[in-house]
Specification:
The chain has 16 helices and 14 strands. The protein is of the alpha+beta class. The strands form three sheets. Strands 1, 2, 3, 4, 8, 9, 12 and 14 form an eight-stranded antiparallel sheet that branches. It is globular and about 85 Å long.
Length: about 600
């Protein structure tokens, strides 16, 4: 663990190295609170310069990619394009270098000089298989961010998904079409990008668009990679030499049927093991209506609370739906806060896979709302009600899951998804891609890794809905295969969906096809170290606005209710913007697209 320098330790002359080491650790562990405090301390030390805060493990293509996506989220699209294009160039350069190194001496791991009896042609074949496997492993090496144990899925294709939309935002439809067609080389059936392609075609016209083709260097790479995969799968099928395909975009028809059957059987076996590991130790709760009856009797705030759907009815474990958390007046008051911010945001469309013809995602944190209340931009009573709704949800989660102490808020925000052009036809598209909250599902859902960028410290999720005047936008759970829908839930005012945040509860959100869907999204942790830092600041602002403020929330307590009066929208309230993929209830048998992860619900 890195720790601050002691002024008396003789290390003060190495503060530049300490700052660099802290920055390196923080880049790989952005949620580590102690290191955040260390960095803040170093910034305030005399002699520490901004240039000292550098990542010692930086890789050129990852530096450019991270900076490009950061600028993308800030809507600085011209600068984002520049960095993302640099990331593509650096990636391809790194790939060429890695592949060149694969052509080195024969180094078969199982080789034994005394025991090896193969003839010349067999030896050449062994070496060639090693080279091909090494070439494919380069994808994993380049897609693995320093400090992390596994590769980011679909790393190279994601560059072009960002770029096609960024070019759209600067009205460069030639490049937007080029990047969308380049992305389709990897995922030719991706619905959102196919729709984007059609949108760009409508802007350019058929004659002009006919001359715009995918990037040649990517076409060559895809062609070469598929040839290598075909050979490696053939060797795997005929000689039993293992091959771990690094890509999710490999066409299924390329994989021999015998291997597909074997991989399916292995996936089922691994999934069973994952279910046992993830659910057995946590299945400590016996759901009881009695717990909620005690909570209802504890305060008028919970008088209308009821458990609407339990885990068994949702065809899963550690999940529930509760109604009556908020009244219609309270839902309307909190939504008014969203409208204030939405007016000032002027129709922001967010997300790396955002579709110009689909819903946009906008969010507002409780800290920002309270700051706006201090500045007189929004109604203080509305801000207080928003805060109280989060405390109320915290109390319900504690009681429903029988936690000994209130869970700490890890992150929270008010999130609205709005259909851009009214009613859309493709309601089957997901607005929030399929994912598990605190771990990364692998492409075949055989494991769920708790490492960055997963929010591994999050233990419980809760989504408090504010309305139902919209079309689409259903929340859904899937089975452990992360494909088959196990339950869909209709959002409505005062409805709370809560569940454990692990691999036992893959979930997503269908696209909003008409109107606006709003919810207060919260994630809780049992580890105080990972609590939301803004929460402390929010409590301070609450004390300024409404002294005195209770310092703790008991198992059945909550703040007294202060209904918010109608408040007209204001301008000038900036959004906290949430990038995420584009995109009501009981059990179905439908299939979902491949999973992903994101923040909003």
């Amino acid at each position: 663990m890195l720790t601050p320098c002691d002024p008396d330790s003789g290390m003060m002359d190495q503060l530049d190295k300490a700052a660099a080491a802290a920055e390196t650790f923080h880049r790989a562990n952005p949620d580590h609170l102690e290191m955040q405090d260390n960095l803040e301390m170093y910034r305030n030390m005399e002699g520490v310069k901004p240039g000292n805060f550098r990542d010692l493990e930086a890789v050129p293509h990852w530096e450019a990619y991270d900076e490009g996506t950061r600028l993308y989220q800030l809507e600085q699209f011209p600068q984002s394009i520049e960095r993302l294009e640099a990331a593509v160039r650096e990636y391809l350069g790194g790939l060429a270098e890695c592949r060149a190194q694969c052509e080195g001496p024969y180094d078969f791991r199982e080789y034994s000089y005394l025991e090896y009896q193969s003839h010349l042609y067999e030896t050449i074949s062994d070496h060639y298989v090693q080279v091909l496997s090494c070439n494919q492993d380069c994808v994993l090496e380049l897609a693995t961010k320093p400090g992390r144990a596994s590769a980011s899925p679909d790393f190279l294709p994601s560059h072009f998904k960002f770029l096609q939309y960024a070019y759209h935002k600067v009205a460069n439809y030639d490049k937007a079409l080029e990047c969308s067609r380049t992305f389709l080389l990897f995922h030719p059936k991706d619905h959102s990008v196919l729709q984007n392609e059609a949108f760009y075609l409508s802007k350019l016209g058929a004659d002009r668009a006919a001359d715009i083709q995918p990037r040649e260097e990517i076409k060559s790479y895809v062609k070469q990679s598929l040839l290598e995969k075909e050979l490696l799968y053939y060797v795997m099928d005929t000689l039993g030499v293992p091959f771990n395909d690094p890509d999710a975009w490999t066409p299924p028809e390329l994989i021999p049927q015998s291997i597909q059957k074997r991989l399916k059987a292995e996936k089922e076996e691994a999934r069973k093991g994952m279910v046992e590991r993830e659910t057995a130790p946590n299945e400590t709760r016996v759901e009881s209506q009695g717990d909620m009856e005690i909570l209802k009797a504890s305060s008028p705030l919970f008088a209308n609370l009821k458990v609407a759907i339990v885990s068994e009815q949702l065809n899963g474990s550690q999940r529930a739906v509760l109604d009556g958390v908020l009244s219609h007046e309270e839902c309307a008051a909190i939504r008014r806060l969203a409208n204030v911010a939405a007016d000032s945001a002027k129709g922001y469309q967010g997300g790396p896979s955002a579709d110009p013809s689909k819903d946009r995602i906008e969010g507002l944190t409780i800290l920002r709302v309270l700051e706006l209340a201090i500045d007189g931009v929004v109604d203080p009573d509305g801000a207080r009600l928003y805060y109280e709704a989060t405390v109320r949800t915290q109390t319900i989660v504690q009681n429903y899951f029988q936690l000994k102490a209130p869970p700490h808020v890890s992150f929270s925000h008010l999130l609205c998804r709005t259909a851009v052009t009214g009613h859309q036809e493709n309601s089957g598209e997901t607005s929030q891609a399929l994912h598990a909250q605190n771990c990364l599902l692998d492409p075949e859902a055989t494991a769920c890794s708790k490492e960055p960028p997963a929010y591994a410290a999050r233990d419980f999720s809760a989504f408090l809905y504010l309305n139902d005047e919209f079309e689409g936008g259903a929340f859904f759970f899937t089975n452990q295969d992360a494909e088959t829908i196990s339950a869909e839930i209709e959002p409505k005012c005062g409805r709370l969906v809560t569940f454990k945040s692990g691999a036992e509860n893959p979930h997503g959100v269908q696209g909003v096809t008409g109107g606006q869907r709003c919810a207060v999204s919260l994630w809780f942790t049992l580890d105080r170290q990972h609590r939301e830092k803004d929460r402390v600041r929010s409590e301070t602002l609450m004390e300024q606005l409404f002294p005195p403020l209770p310092t703790s929330v008991g198992p059945v307590g909550s703040l007294p209710r202060h209904p918010s009066p109608p408040h007209p929208p204001h301008r000038g309230a900036p959004w906290y913007r949430v990038p995420g993929p584009r995109g009501r209830g009981q059990s179905t048998g439908n299939r979902r697209p491949r999973r992903g992860r994101g923040r909003g619900k």
